[in-house]
C-alpha cells in the first residue's frame, strides 16, 4: 500500500488533513516521522530509510532530488518511490490543491508497488 512521506518543507498539517479525509491512508511528515530524527538529514539518507520502511517521498525539491535519482538509477540503488511536485503545477502554499492531487494518486495507485517509481504530481 502507498505510504506517503512528506519532506520537511511540507506542513505536517497536510498529513493530518489527508488522514482525516482518507481513513486507512498512511501519510506522515518527515518533521514528525520517527520523532523527527531525519529532519535536516542528507537526501540519500532519507531515501534509504524511507525505502527500508516502505515509504514514498513527496517533495518540491526538484533541484537536489532529481540528480540523486539519476545517480541511484545508474548505480542500481532502489528507493521507495518519489512524487515530485513542481511549484508551477501546485503552489507550495496551496494545501487544498496538494491534498486533492495526492488524493487522486491515492485513489488510483494506493495498491501499486512504488519501488523505484518516479512521477510528477498533476494539478487537481
Counting DSSP E segments of at least 2 residues, the number of strands comes to 5
**What global shape is seen?**
globular
Mean pLDDT: 94
SSE class: alpha/beta
The CATH architecture designation is 3-Layer(aba) Sandwich
The total domain count is 1
Mind describing the biggest β-sheet? 5 strands, parallel
Task: Give the SSE order as H and E letters.
Answer: EHEHEHEHE
- Strand portion: 5-15%
CATH class: Alpha Beta
How would you write the strand order of the largest sheet?
A: 2-1-3-4-5
Low-confidence stretches: none
**Count of helical regions:** 4
State the helicity in percent bands.
40-55%
Instruction: Report the CATH topology name.
Output: Rossmann fold
The whole-angstrom Rg is: 13 Å
Mind explaining what this structure looks like?
There is one protein chain. With 124 residues, the protein is α/β, with parallel strands linked by helices. It has a single domain, classed as Rossmann fold (3-Layer(aba) Sandwich), CATH 3.40.50. Helices cover 40% and strands 15% of the residues. The protein has four helices and five strands. It has helices at residues 12-21, 43-53, 62-75, 95-109; strands spanning 3-6, 26-29, 56-59, 82-84, 118-120. A five-stranded parallel sheet has the order 2-1-3-4-5. Strand 1, helix 1 (12-21) and strand 2 (26-29) form a beta-alpha-beta unit. The protein is globular and about 40 Å long. 29% of the residues are buried.
Amino acid at each position: 500500500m502507498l505510504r506517503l512521506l512528506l519532506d520537511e518543507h511540507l506542513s505536517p498539517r497536510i498529513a493530518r488533513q489527508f488522514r482525516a479525509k482518507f481513513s486507512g491512508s498512511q501519510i506522515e511528515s518527515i518533521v514528525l516521522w520517527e520523532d523527527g530524527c531525519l529532519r535536516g538529514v542528507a537526501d540519500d539518507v532519507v531515501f534509504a530509510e524511507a525505502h527500508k520502511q516502505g515509504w514514498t517521498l513527496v517533495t518540491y525539491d526538484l533541484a537536489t532530488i532529481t540528480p540523486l535519482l539519476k545517480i541511484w538509477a545508474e548505480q542500481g540503488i532502489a528507493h521507495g518511490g518519489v512524487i515530485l511536485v513542481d511549484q508551477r503545477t501546485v503552489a507550495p502554499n496551496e494545501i487544498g490543491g496538494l491534498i486533492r492531487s495526492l488524493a487522486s494518486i491515492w485513489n488510483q495507485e494506493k495498491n501499486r508497488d512504488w519501488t523505484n517509481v518516479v512521477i510528477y504530481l498533476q494539478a487537481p
